Each structure stands twice: as structure tokens, then as C-alpha cells.
Amino acid sequence: MNDSVLDRRVQTAFLALVLAQAAHSVEEYVFRLYEVFQPARLVSGLVSADVRVGFAILNVSIVSIGLLCYFYRVRPGHPSARGWVWFWIIFELVNGIGHSFLALVRRAYFPGVVTAPILFAVALYLAFRLAEERRGDT
Q1: Average pLDDT, whole number, for the chain?
Q2: For the chain, is the Cβ count within 10 Å smaller at the N or the C terminus?
Q3: Are 6 and 133 in contact (CB under 8 A)?
Q4: What per-residue confidence (pLDDT) applies to 48?
Q5: How far apart are CA 53 and CA 49, in angstroms?
């Protein structure tokens, strides 16, 4: 098997991860993460004077980059595909754990915590699939 061509299940799971990130971004926006999490407010403020708009722009950008990775790297089996998938796995594992941790610390709902387990689960599945594929267990 060509090292850069990823198994169809990995490709599909990667797309699912990007779509889960889209749902996660919507949850964060609707429940105003940018109002309750200072780092989100700070970064959003660098993009726009209106942090709500800046936050939306950043999240649309994240999802767009994920879709570009899928359509131009992962699906066609570009030599960099595996690296992009690993980047997204790490990004979403940290994202999923971070939201869950903040909700636990606050002992209350924290914007993004409902979709965080989905990010974590799909990222973990992808990590296992890539490891299996690498060993040739597919």
C-alpha cells in the first residue's frame, strides 16, 4: 500500500472529525465562549474589534482549513496527508480534553463541553486506525 494513501475509514473519520469541529464551533458560538473564556476573547479581539465577529471568523477558518486538508491532502492521498491527520488528532484531543476539564473545574456547563466528547472519541478512533494501518492490521 502506498504510504501516503490512507484507508477509506481513516478518510471518512477525518471528515467526521472536521464536521464534529464545525458542530463544536457552533456550540461555542451559540453559548458565547468568547464571553466566558479570556483566551478566546483575546484571540477573537485580534481578528475584529467585535469579539463575536472575530470568534466567528476564527472558527469558520478552522473548519475551512480542516475541509481543505480533507479535500486536498487526505482524500487524494497526498504525501503530507498522514501528518495533517496527526495534527488534527492532537488538536482535537487537546480541544476535547480542555473543554471537559474546564467544565469539571467549574462544576457547570462550559461552552463546547457537549461536543467535546465527540471530538475526543473521533480523534482517538483516528489515532487507533492510523496506528493499525501503519502496522498493516487493516
Answers
A1: 95
A2: N
A3: yes
A4: 98
A5: 8
Distance from C-alpha of 93 to C-alpha of 58, rounded to nearest angstrom: 19
Buried b (16+ CB within 10 A) or exposed e, 7-30: eeebbbbbbebbbbbbebbebbbe
Mean pLDDT value of segment 77-92: 97
Handedness of CA 48, 49, 55, 56 (dihedral sign): negative
Is the CA virtual torsion 54, 12, 90, 80 positive or negative?
negative
| Domain boundaries along the sequence of the chain | 8-135
Burial level of 69, CB count in 10 A (0-12/13-18/19+)? Answer: buried
Sorted by sequence, the CB contacts under 8 Å of residue 107 that are 6+ apart come out as none
- Number of Cβ within a 10 Å radius of residue 47: 15
What HEC string does 74-129 produce?
HCCCCCCHHHHHHHHHHHHHHHHHHHHHHHHHHCCCCCCCCCHHHHHHHHHHHHHH
